[in-house]
Amino acid sequence: MSAAPNQHTLIAPAKLTLSLHITGLRADGYHVIDAVMTTLEVHDTLTVHDDVNTSTVTYSGPFSDGLVGDGRDLVSRALVACGRRARVEVHKHIPHSGGLGGGSADAAAIFRWAGVDDLDLAASIGADVPFCVRGGRARVRGIGEIVEPLADEPGLVTLVVPPLAVSTPLAYRAWDEMGGPSHPTNDLEPAALMVEPELATWKKRITEAAGVEPTLAGSGATWFVLGDHGHIAEDLHDARVMVTRHR
């Protein structure tokens, strides 16, 4: 059976921040970044009904706990920014508060559906939204609004999502308070470890299980190792281990 004319199914792929360096702080308090991001195969699915007078957003799925379409969520804000009204059902497969851009991916799906490609407007919703609008693999600068495409380097990546959540604003605040520490791959890692010390335990466990040190995805709490290390799921039974493709 085909979908009704007013019903649209949207795919919202997760993103992975492969490297992140903080290069400055603007007068308005926003941090300036220089990052490399890639689209992942794991994704949320949005069902959009656009024959309504008032927008509503609902969340379901394995990673929907605590998510509410209260007007402050990124999907609701994206609808307002794009000047559209719709009833949106979001089925969550991207862990939230994990550094994989789940909310940003959902908001970006709304931008694409609405035909809006204004990356400055997208950045006003969230720093990861512009990249998620474009997708692929890219160098991302500014406060997220400068997206420069890079050639795809497809492969597999193993994600380890521990039962933790890290607030991105708190991680950036900690980075400021620590005097702006640098890191070979992710400048936010030292700050995230300060905000959530249990992350260090997970880094050690993943290193022991995989035989290679993981990288923190953005502000966390997800760690990742390039390649297929699905075998570590047995040792890390209290986390969610996902092997997915990246661009």
Mind explaining what this structure looks like?
- The chain is of the alpha+beta class and 247 residues long.
- The protein folds into two domains: 7-149, 2-Layer Sandwich (Ribosomal Protein S5, domain 2), CATH 3.30.230.10; 155-246, GHMP kinase, C-terminal domain (Alpha-Beta Plaits, 2-Layer Sandwich).
- 26% of the residues lie in helices and 32% in strands.
- The strands form two sheets. Strands 1, 2, 3, 4, 5 and 6 form a six-stranded mixed β-sheet that branches. The chain has a four-stranded antiparallel β-sheet with strand order 8-9-7-10, covered by helices on one side.
- The longest helix has 13 residues, at 102-114.
Question: What key attributes describe this structure?
Answer:
247 residues; six-stranded mixed β-sheet; Ribosomal Protein S5, domain 2; 7 helices; alpha+beta; Alpha-Beta Plaits; four-stranded antiparallel β-sheet
Number of extended strands:
10
Instruction: Tell me the number of helical segments per DSSP (H or I, 4 or more residues long).
Output: 7
Strand portion, in percent?
A: 25-35%
- Number of self-contained structural domains: 2
How does the helix and strand content classify structurally? alpha+beta
**What does the average pLDDT come to?**
95
User: In this structure, how is the largest beta sheet organized?
Assistant: 6 strands, mixed
Helix content, binned percent: 25-40%
| CATH topology value of the largest domain | Ribosomal Protein S5, domain 2
| Span of the ends, CA to CA | 32 Å
The Cα radius of gyration reads: 18 Å
Give the second-level CATH assignment, the architecture of the largest domain: 2-Layer Sandwich
Low-confidence segments, given as residue ranges, are none
Shape: globular
* CATH hierarchy class name of the largest domain: Alpha Beta
Order of helices and strands: EEEHEHHHEEEHHHEEE
